[in-house]
Hints:
The strands form two sheets. Strands 1, 2, 3, 4, 5, 6, 8, 9, 10, 11, 13, 14, 15 and 16 form a 14-stranded antiparallel sheet that branches. The chain has a two-stranded antiparallel ribbon with strand order 7-12. The model is unreliable at about 1-15, about 20-25, about 135-145 and about 230-245 (pLDDT under 50). The protein has about 325 residues and is α+β, with helices and mostly antiparallel strands. The protein has helices at about 5-15, 25-45, 45-50, 150-170, 250-265; strands at about 15, 55-65, 70-80, 85-90, 100-105, 110-120, 125-130, 180-185, 190-195, 205-210, 215-220, 225-230, 270-285, 285-295, 300-305, 310. The protein is globular, with a radius of gyration of 20 Å.
Amino acid sequence: MKKFAIVAAVVVLSNIVELPTAPWVGLRAQDRVADVIAQVKHALGGERLTAVKALTAEGPFRRSMGQRDMEGTAVLTIVRPDRLRRSEEIAMGGTAGGPTVERVMGFNGTEAWEDVQNRGGMGGGMQMRVMGPGGPGGPGGPGGVLTPEQIEQQRARRMKSELQRWTVALFADSARPFTDAGVAESPDGKADVLETTDEAERAVRLFVDQATHLPLMLQYQEIRPRIMMAGPGGPGRGRGAGGPGGGQRPSEEEMQRRIEEFRKQGPPPPSAFSMHLSDYKKVDGVMLPHKVDVSIEGEPNEEWTIEKYRVNPSIKAQEFEKPKQ
């Protein structure tokens, strides 16, 4: 994982110059926000950007999960204003023809869903379960384990927040108003900082390069999913990943027992996420980042190299509906 982006993020955060909050300054700040947004949209493509109603991005990624490094291919599909789909094909064994996991998440504007399929490999293949937020092993609050209805609501809220973050990062748009969060400084230059809020009322900050007017980074808070994996090279458990261990896939009863262990731990606090955007290239008249790096609490977590974009492709509505079992 590259370290320079993380270091830059820390420098930026430590040098945000907050603007005064006097009433007359507030009006000036609103004008500044409007100017920054106009500059960003112009730099991203102007009318070409406005004409984007659907977008797909595809390419290989690498993700750290505790003691494991996972590699695979991700496809992100957005249909504005309210539909999102992300599919991942993850190679669990690190070798061609080994066990894989296909994870698909969808949001159709009102309902969200997730489907995980384990395929191939030794002994029935690697098995992966995602525990919260919004997953089958999501921990409960003070009242105990979440009900199915609460899990569905939590998953929809999480997916809606993810859609909003991508909309802010790629289009400089937000359903909730932007406010002026000041100017960030680093050895590489200055960035205007705009702030909005997500579905959980948590702050989402967009950093915009003052020289190029392109988005540099998105900062937000989210509950880090807890992944439990078992199979060849597993089982493992813990925050963010599985560790090394035996080589047999556990029974369904054993998996349920481990899920209950996660639930008893209670809900973890939100973590600080940073999404770094770079390697901008023009696609159909729109400037789009071809490198997306994500860090959690300052530690590198994911690298995604986008090799292919499609602007305004034809996408069927069924793509955002949960597959029938």
